[in-house]
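Appendix B, record 7
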Amino acid sequence: MNIIFYIREQTKLIESTYLQWQKVGSDYGKNINSFYSLHKKSFDFIERIKPWGDSFGGENIHARVYDKRMIGSDVFKDFSTVIGLDAQKIPEIRENQSIIAEFSRLIESMDSLLEIEKSSREKLVREIVRLSEKFRTSSKEKIISEELEKEIKLFYHEGNKKFAAEYLKEPMASFFMKQIADN
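Structure tokens (predicted):
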């Protein structure tokens, strides 16, 4: 039995999840701060992996750091390799396109000010995603403020250290520990 568990530094994970929920029209809480407050516990890796370890044994958990520097640009190929499939025969799967911070703020405003039919919202968001790709290199804003970033890193720090020690192998453990270090 193989349990494959991908993790990434929480500020990146929270931002990515927030933007995905915003993109698809899930209840993202209207801003990143409320989203984090509502879903804080869901991003605690040690708590999320515990039931799997209890049920299947820690030796069956293969924790991986979701970062191109660790697994390459195709998570499906990494997953396939971990479970023993020939990843060379699998075509590359493209990343999920995301929204830049400036357009995320636009969607927040749109959702809070306007009553838009679901299909119209989907069309608008698809255009915003397309524009995000076009303007990605000129984007300067951040979704998560410096204050919130510090709060997030502090909240998960001890659990992340425990997770890295118990579930990550080298070089992923060292890589992850560098990511979560207080700067």
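Remarks on this record: The two ends are 38 Å apart (CA to CA). The mean pLDDT is 92.
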